[in-house]
Amino acid sequence: MRIRMRIMMPLLAFALVPLGSCSVINKNKGGGSSANVNKEAVLPTDREKIVKPVSGVYTSEELAKGIVKGDWAVERVNGKAAVGETAPFLKFVPEQKRVYGNNGCNVINAAYTYNPADSTLTFSNMASTMMACGMEGITDLEFNAALGAARYYTWRLSGDDYYLTLYDADHNPVMEMMHQNFQFLNGTWLVRQIDGQSVDVPDMKLVIDVDEGKLHGNTGCNIINGTLETDMEAANSISFQQIAMTRMACPTPNFETQLVVALEQAAKAKPLKEDRVELVDNQGKIVLLLERTSDK
Asked: How far apart are CA 259 and CA 176, in angstroms?
């Protein structure tokens, strides 16, 4: 759970100078806006508050090459927890050499260039919407200033998550981001427990396709389908949506209702050893225990 902090320090407009001709410098906190900036600063059509489907995962070859791509949840800005009015994120699109995102309040666009050979990364030609923003957590000006100061980058794999860190010219960290990797959920799973109750139904299986953001399977009697979505606001956060199933009459007792309820309650996924995964709700209670199987 991220903690909201109120920043009382003064902000200097010239902190945004490194971004070049950036319209954010002239921002009007009273609600004024620039028509040109508002027109330019738009989200790509495939990016909303909820990422659908889960963004692509790095291969080992891309990791070795230092490729910068995909959706990143911003964790820290200049050492401060990145909590804004909305969840700050950046989406890197190498094919366009553009980055899209939200600085905790406003939508931003910018060009970016990077060179894995010397680990340099810079942003330019940034545009932003002009919504009036509060002072909770990091401010949009602090976020934009951090991007303007960025000169180098490093990234690493920790567990199932990738972390990208941006540094200024003096190699001080200015922004830390996390790219969630849900590939451990890919495949076919037997349902072993629902709400702590053991389940021994050989035909109760879930097939999860992370890249397509899809769920399908069998309740032990009926076919089940749905979508998998991920929230950028918190690590390992997932959500199963649009759950539907066939309506064949099933012998009793069965676990159909419990399975559907558990899927709807699932809020996080945690990989375990021995090819097992826990799905937990918002209170940390384990609602499903899954075990990988090679059966289809």
From this structure: 37
User: Model's pTM, two decimal places?
Assistant: 0.56
CA dihedral over 48, 54, 59, 63, signed as positive or negative = positive
Measured between alpha carbons, how far is 111 from 19 in angstroms, rounded to an integer? 10
166 class by beta-carbon count within 10 Å (0-12 exposed, 13-18 middle, 19+ buried): buried
Cα dist from 126 to 37, 55, 207, 256, whole Å:
9, 23, 41, 51
Please name which of 160, 163, 126, 118 lies closest in space to residue 146, comparing C-alpha atoms: 126
- pLDDT tens digits, 68-121: 987 788 989 999 888 777 778 898 888 899 999 888 888 999 999 999 999 999
Beta bridge partners of 6: 136
- DSSP 3-state of 120: strand
Residue 43: which pLDDT band, with cuts at 50, 70 and 90?
Answer: very low
1/227 Cα distance (integer angstroms): 25
pLDDT in tens, 266-296: 988 888 877 999 999 988 899 999 999 987 6
DSSP strands (E only) in 103-237? 107-115, 120-128, 152-158, 161-167, 173-180, 187-194, 197-198, 204-209, 214-219, 223-231
Q: How far apart (Å, rounded) are the C-alpha atoms in residues 89 and 75?
A: 9
C-alpha atoms less than 13 angstroms from C-alpha of 38 in its C-beta half-sphere: 8
Token readout for 58 is 């790095």
Among candidates 289, 105, 278, 91, which has minimal Cα distance to 197?
A: 289
CA–CA gap between residue 291 and residue 279 (Å, rounded): 11
Please answer whether residues 205 and 293 qualify as being in contact, where contact means their C-beta atoms are separated by less than 8 angstroms.
yes
Cis? peptide before 253, omega within 30° of 0 = yes
